[in-house]
Specification:
With 299 residues, the chain is mainly alpha-helical. It has a single domain, classed as Fic-like fold. It is built from 13 helices and 4 strands. It has a two-stranded antiparallel sheet. A two-stranded antiparallel sheet has the order 3-4.
Length: 299
């Protein structure tokens, strides 16, 4: 659902747009997490096809991975995550970066830092504010943008990303408490839906002066692995996000609406997981589901 267009048209007196928004509001359910101003986020369960979740489970259970796949995927995941943030390193240069520890460019350093951050998550069991701060320190080591608003813990100034203005600094402690209460709570059954909300909320907070996107993608894969989906250690979800970056940012923008409905981003992330799994299985010559263009199915 493109909230921006519907809300604009409704304000201009379009009855059809107003009706669609009214019908959507009736279907929304409240989530146990609030934004910086205390409004609870919502979602629309009926807009998430059960068959999509079934196909994701079916594909995940048919993937074959090895330790070598995991080692390679961490490198490629780091590469694609940094490409989203503008790193100009090419895939052909990865060998030099990881084998010769090449750090000639900012992009090289960003990739190595992200790789180190994955390794850090693999050896620490803690998932708290200190963990996020340490991730930020690793990810931005030597390549930090906006150092003028860099604090000891969170950013010290206002940041705007696209049309989104992140919460004021004074509200970040409140937001972080909301984040971890939801992260650690027993609330959403599907780990794929829950991790989409986790990812969105972290990007919404934008707690650091730099590195927020990379950290959001790191904790996405990490959350899925910690949920028992260990094969995600050998997958490169950032590759799919990189290839659909415009849709990624549009989904974030659509999830900032008057209903606080984050369904557009949930739909995007589920489709990204689905497409990523499908591509991996296609490479393994396994076709366990018929490919569906879910964006044409979503409400």
């Amino acid at each position: 659902m493109d909230y921006k267009i519907l809300e604009r048209d409704a304000k201009l007196g379009d009855y059809s747009a107003s009706k669609k928004l009214e019908q959507r509001q009736e279907k929304l359910e409240t989530l146990p997490i609030r934004d910086a101003l205390g409004y609870p986020l919502t979602w629309c369960p009926s807009a998430i096809p059960g068959s999509l979740l079934e196909d994701i489970d079916k594909m995940y259970n048919n993937i074959s991975v090895t330790d070598i796949d995991t080692d390679i995927s961490i490198e490629e995941e780091s590469f694609h995550s940094c490409r989203i943030e503008g790193a100009d390193t090419t895939i052909d240069e990865l060998f030099d970066i990881f084998r010769a520890k090449r750090t000639e460019s900012k992009g090289d350093k960003m990739i190595l830092n992200t790789y180190r951050a994955v390794k850090f998550l693999n050896i620490t069991s803690k998932r708290n504010v200190d963990t996020l701060v340490r991730l930020w320190e690793i990810v931005t080591d030597g390549v930090c943008d906006n150092p003028n608003i860099s604090g000891n813990k969170f950013r010290t100034g206002v940041v705007t990303v696209g049309t989104h203005e992140a919460p004021e600094v004074e509200l970040l402690d409140y937001c972080m408490k909301q984040f971890f209460d939801f992260y650690n709570g027993y609330n959403i059954e599907s780990p794929y839906i829950k991790v989409a909300i986790v990812h969105f909320y972290f990007v919404y907070m934008h707690p650091f002066c730099d590195g927020n996107g990379r950290i959001a993608r790191l904790i996405t894969s990490d959350f899925l692995i910690r949920s028992g989906l260990n094969n995600f250690s050998a997958l490169t979800l950032s590759k799919t996000i990189n290839e659909t970056a415009q849709d990624y940012y549009q989904a974030i923008e659509n999830s900032e609406n008057s209903f606080h409905d984050v369904t557009p981003f949930i739909q995007y992330m589920l489709k990204a997981v689905y497409d990523n799994l499908y591509e991996v299985l296609k490479g393994q010559n396994k076709f366990v589901v018929s490919h569906t263009e879910w964006e044409k199915v979503f409400e």
